[in-house]
């Protein structure tokens, strides 16, 4: 593809029907190697140009064929299948396909693609929030890229994704300087895909620091590059982040325009991670206490688009936000119902991760219902859960912990609070979810 795949994508789109016919012929004629190589070469295009479900079907059919083939042929097709699985939020299949691809490239001795597939493999746990598992794989990908003289494609992208790992571990300064350096690098090698991702990554970091204008500049910079590539999923991501800024600035009308535009892009592409990202911005609506019914409508749209293989934590995050809004509005019955759905989803995850805010809101709801003892246990459980998710709280999480701590302190004396908090802190995440579910039922 080179550093700028846009011209090739235009050519592939123009000849897509011919390529479909070639694939159908190869599969029907039992030409497995031909089918696999076609799938391998088309995978990146399918994920970028709104053909995710079609590409997934072709890749499964080709991989399922019988017959011995050179390892690099199977490697390229399983790589493509992994790309499609990521876009459908099927983490187990993505990891299985990327692992098989890496094994095949190791068998063929292709050092460049060994480095690349290590990078892709690291992206799977990163995408579902398992930073502790992603971090050493990213480090290995960077080491391999150094040994292969910095592959101009995967090396900067490995650094880009690793910057998010660094940020999640609390080193925001290093992550920010890394992304700024990568933007310069991508400009020098004229890599529009890299400019899209690095600008969105840096914009997200700047947004977390409260610099709305600086964040908006990076998100807006990314959009024309994404459109040039035909990568409408990333257009949707940028619009989603701009919607978040509008929410934070109390510009509800603009936020709704951008949010709906973002959703339209993701629905068109079929990108489930994109839909989760877009609808995850509902939490920003809490700052303006917007229309709860509209939020619930968005969630209902999301439910109709999430398959069974979707990462349930993304849905749980949205439900937490809706439960928080209902609780703020003293609609405790609705808050209980929404948090019950949220906690039930968390109980189905293995391992249980990212549940701290739902536990915290359950503590706040217990206070509202006059049960400070249960609230104190849930506060302690939330504090323990937060430590297992990330070593450092975000600004929003810190404010929420401070708020609920104050609520609990107002209802208990110091000695009782310490004892009950410690009891909750000793619970496993799964036990804490079970305890919280009994509270909201």
What are the secondary-structure elements, in order, as H or E? HHHHHHHHHHHHHHHHHHHHHHHH
Averaging pLDDT over every residue, what do you get? 80
User: What best-fitting shape do the alpha-carbon axes yield?
Assistant: globular
Q: What is the structural class? A: mainly alpha
State the helical fraction. over 70%
- Give the beta-strand count: 0
Q: How would you characterize the largest beta sheet?
A: none
What does this structure look like?
The chain has 441 residues and is mainly alpha-helical. The protein has 24 helices and no strands. The longest helix is centred in the N-terminal third of the chain and has 18 residues, at 91-108. The protein is globular. It starts with 5 loop residues before the first helix and ends with a helix.
Annotation keywords:
about 450 residues; mainly alpha; 24 helices; globular
Strand-helix topology:
Blueprint: H1 6-14, H2 16-28, H3 32-48, H4 52-63, H5 71-87, H6 91-108, H7 111-127, H8 131-147, H9 154-168, H10 172-188, H11 192-208, H12 212-229, H13 232-248, H14 252-269, H15 272-280, H16 282-285, H17 292-303, H18 312-328, H19 332-347, H20 356-368, H21 372-389, H22 395-409, H23 414-425, H24 429-440
Short description:
By secondary structure, the protein is an all-alpha fold.
């Amino acid at each position: 593809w080179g550093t700028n795949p846009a011209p090739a994508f235009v050519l592939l789109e123009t000849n897509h029907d011919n390529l479909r016919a070639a694939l159908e012929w190869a599969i029907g004629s039992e030409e497995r190697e031909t089918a696999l190589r076609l799938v391998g070469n088309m995978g990146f295009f399918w994920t970028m140009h709104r053909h995710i479900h079609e590409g997934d079907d072709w890749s499964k059919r080709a991989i399922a064929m019988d017959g011995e083939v050179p390892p690099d042929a199977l490697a390229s097709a399983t790589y493509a299948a992994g790309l499609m699985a990521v876009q459908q939020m099927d983490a187990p299949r993505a990891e299985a396909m990327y692992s098989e691809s890496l094994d095949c490239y190791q068998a063929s001795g292709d050092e460049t693609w060994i480095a690349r597939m290590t990078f892709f493999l690291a992206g799977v746990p990163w995408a579902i929030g398992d930073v502790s598992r992603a971090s050493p794989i990213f480090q290995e990908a960077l080491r391999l890229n150094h040994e292969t003289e910095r592959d101009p494609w995967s090396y900067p992208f490995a650094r880009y994704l690793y910057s998010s790992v660094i940020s999640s571990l609390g080193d925001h300064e290093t992550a920010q300087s890394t992304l700024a350096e990568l933007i310069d690098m991508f400009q020098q090698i004229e890599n529009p895909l890299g400019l899209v991702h690095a600008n969105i990554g840096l914009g997200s970091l700047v947004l977390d620091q409260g610099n709305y204008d600086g964040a908006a500049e990076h998100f807006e910079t990314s959009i024309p590059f994404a459109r040039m590539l035909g990568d409408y999923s990333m257009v949707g991501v940028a619009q989603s982040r701009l919607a978040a800024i509008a929410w934070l600035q109390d510009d509800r009308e603009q936020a709704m325009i951008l949010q709906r535009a973002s959703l339209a892009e993701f629905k068109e592409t079929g990108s489930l991670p994109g839909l989760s990202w877009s609808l995850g911005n509902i939490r920003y609506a809490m700052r303006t206490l917007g229309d709860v019914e509209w939020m619930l409508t968005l969630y209902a749209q999301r439910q109709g688009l999430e398959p069974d293989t979707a990462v349930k934590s993304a849905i749980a995050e949205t439900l937490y936000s809706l439960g928080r809004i209902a609780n703020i509005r003293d609609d405790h019955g609705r808050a209980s119902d929404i948090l019950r759905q949220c906690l039930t989803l968390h109980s189905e995850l293995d391992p249980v991760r990212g549940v701290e805010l739902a536990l915290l809101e359950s503590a706040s709801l217990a206070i509202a219902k006059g049960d400070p003892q249960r609230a104190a246990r849930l506060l302690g459980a939330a504090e323990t859960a937060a430590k297992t998710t990330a070593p450092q709280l975000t600004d929003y999480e810190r404010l929420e912990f401070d708020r609920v701590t104050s609520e609990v302190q107002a209802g208990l004396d110091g000695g009782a609070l310490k004892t009950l908090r410690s009891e909750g802190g000793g619970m496993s995440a799964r036990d804490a979810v079970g305890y919280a579910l009994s509270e909201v039922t």
